[in-house]
Amino acid sequence: MIFMKKISLLIVASIALMMAFAACETTKQEPAPAAVEEDDLEYQRSINKIEGQVVSKETFNADKAAILKKIGELNDIMAKKDFTSWQKYISDGSKKYWSNSYTLLKASEKLPKELKGLKLKNLNDYFNYVFIPSRKGRQIDEIRYNSAEDVKAVQVTKTDDEKTKITVYYNFVKEGGDWKVELPQM
To answer: What is the DSSP letter of 90?
Structure first.
């Protein structure tokens, strides 16, 4: 009888041990809950304003990489004040708009205090007195689509009250299959 009780106890203990071990195994094999990754959130923020168009995540990643590369190149061009190279990055419509003498006159009237009295005479003046100072040393964090061929390059910061502040430093349009800077109009 004692022998039977020991065997029964041994069997019960073995079964309990096997069940506990099996439970640990199944826990290890369960997939972790799907966490939303930051790049997925950025992708959603970037495409949420476009209606009736689809931009895949792959396209978003390619566009962002191309635009950030162009911004890096523009930073080098601005540091050198290389107007000739800069023009290659600007959309045709922007070059035409900002070469207009009336547009330059109106822009001259809106220059900051330290430049009051300066008259913008040509696109080169716009490059030196408006474009460079307004973008020099800026950090671009994300892109935001207006459409599949119109993108803003923005800096995202948190305010003191934890709100998100978006500052647009570049607008890009697709022109001939390439992203070009679209200068803001007045």
So the answer is: B
